[in-house]
Design goal:
Elements (H helix, E strand, L loop, with lengths): L10 E5 L4 H12 L3 E6 L2 H10 L5 E4 L5 H15 L4 E4 L14 H29 L2 E6 L12 H21 L3 E8 L5 H6 L2 H10 L8 H12 L10 E4 L9
Parallel strand pairs: 1-2, 1-4, 2-3, 4-5, 5-6, 6-7
Helix pairs in contact: 1-8, 3-4, 4-5
């Protein structure tokens, strides 16, 4: 595992971090010596993640789609860490439905968490980083935000929005604050397992040049690199980590 010495002591808040990519990312930053706070809506899962990872500095229960909840969460983070150097805006949901079966309620729910949530958290973090003179904001987008995928119209739209949000923020917040979007392809998370049968997994893996799903820890490794000084010239990028899935036409 690469070590990024400048991450030691960095104040890091990670949303959607009680499981999956968020938890694996939190574990990686903690291993680098960062001061990590995890945020999640699921109190039970949050408590378990904290119990399993005593190196984390704390946990916050919040709904990233609610402005008041996000504001309170960042105030709590200030109390725990005394500020923020790195935000990993990772919280997201996915509901697999054909376009004509997506209700307005579902649409607003997915956009509310996946896009509005990242906007709200990024706004709170950026204001603090501007005051302190620097920081890094990283967002979990998706290869679904770069091209169409059936049965994910709301998810695809939200992730495309995340990518352009990151690029626009990067332009406005430079040079003090770097902003990038990470675009995973298929990742072996609980969310993915809930949507796919074994047969679907096998079919998808055959279409990926690397012939497998990513492990959450591999996405966490990319977040660690992008937050470090090794990536000091990278901002406004949408970085794909997809095993070659989008390298060419299937």
């Amino acid at each position: 595992m690469a070590r990024y010495e400048d991450l030691e002591g960095k104040r890091v808040l990670i949303t959607g971090a009680a499981r999956g990519i968020g938890l694996a990312t939190a574990q990686r930053f903690a291993a680098e010596g960062a001061n990590v706070v995890i945020l999640d809506l699921d109190q039970e899962a949050l408590n378990q993640a904290l119990a399993d990872n005593p190196s984390f500095w704390g946990g916050i229960t919040a709904d990233v789609s609610d402005p008041g909840s996000v504001k309170n969460a960042f105030q709590k983070n200030d109390e725990i860490l005394g500020g923020i150097d790195v935000l990993i805006a990772n919280a997201g949901i996915s509901i697999r439905k054909p376009f004509l079966e997506i209700t307005a309620e579902q649409w607003h729910k997915v956009i509310g968490v996946n896009l509005n949530g990242i906007f709200l958290c990024s706004s709170q973090a950026a204001a603090r980083m501007k005051t302190q003179g620097g920081g890094v904001i990283l967002m979990t987008a998706s290869t679904n935000g770069t091209e169409g995928h059936p049965n994910y119209a709301d998810y695809n739209a939200s992730k495309a929005g995340v990518i352009l949000l990151a690029k626009t923020m990067a332009l406005e917040l430079a040079p003090e604050i770097r902003v990038n979007a990470v675009c995973p392809g298929y990742v072996l998370t609980e969310m993915q397992k809930a949507e796919y049968t074994d047969e679907m997994f096998e079919a998808v893996n055959e279409e990926i040049p690397i012939k497998r799903h990513a492990e959450p820890r591999e996405i966490g490794s990319l977040f660690a690199y992008l937050a470090s000084s090794e990536a000091s010239y990278i901002t406004g990028a949408d970085v794909r980590i997809d095993g070659g899935e989008t390298a060419g036409l299937p």
